[in-house]
Amino acid sequence: MDAPGSGDVPINHPGLRRDARKFLENGYAVVRYDKRGTGASGGEIVGVSLENSLETIPLLTDDLSAVIDEILELPEVDTDRVGLYGVSQASWVMPLVMANEPELDFAVYQSAGAIPIGIPMIFEVLSSHQGLPTDYWPDLWPWLSAKGFQP
Questions:
Q1: What are the structural domain ranges in the chain?
Q2: Reduced to 3 states, what is the DSSP secondary structure of residue 110?
Q3: I want to staple 3 with a disulfide (CB 3.0 to 4.6 A). Which of 54, 90, 125, 135 is the partner?
Q4: Phi first, then psi: what are they for 2, rounded to 5°?
Q5: Cβ(20)–Cβ(32) under 8 Å?
Q6: Rounded to whole angstroms, how far apart are CA atoms 133 and 149?
Q7: Do residues 15 and 52 lie in contact, with contact meaning Cβ atoms separated by under 8 Å?
Q8: H or E stretch including 96?
Q9: How do residues 31-83 score in pLDDT, each as one tens digit?
Q10: How many Cα atoms sit within 13 Å of 116 on the Cβ side?
Q11: Which CATH architecture is the domain 2-115 placed in?
Q12: Which DSSP category does 141 fall into?
């Protein structure tokens, strides 16, 4: 099961296709899905921020759990060999799913964020601005505190 990461990244993204191909070449079946609001899925894309992370991470967890529940009902699935693979933001969602889905046997994390959500958010802000003025820095410090989703 390929869990989606952050942003508007549909299942046909070249990086996701490359990752799926590697699993297929090694004998794994792969299931990918479009995160809500991306690709062919319905709904609105849910952007995770410091302010909404306590609501959005559980929402994305419920979405992934619903997909897993559907997969586990398929007769061709060996329910003794089902796991997760995910990149980036998926590393906040997958442990919550693993805790609630005892049928899952493993999880593979790539670019995992095992840190409070505020820390990657500050780096996102820093990387999206050229030459931040010094008066902007005080606005960033609260993001490093223990607010938002904590893995």
A1: 2-115
A2: strand
A3: 90
A4: -100, 105
A5: yes
A6: 28
A7: no
A8: helix 90-100
A9: 888 888 877 888 787 777 777 878 888 888 999 999 999 999 999 888 888 88
A10: 12
A11: 3-Layer(aba) Sandwich (3.40)
A12: G
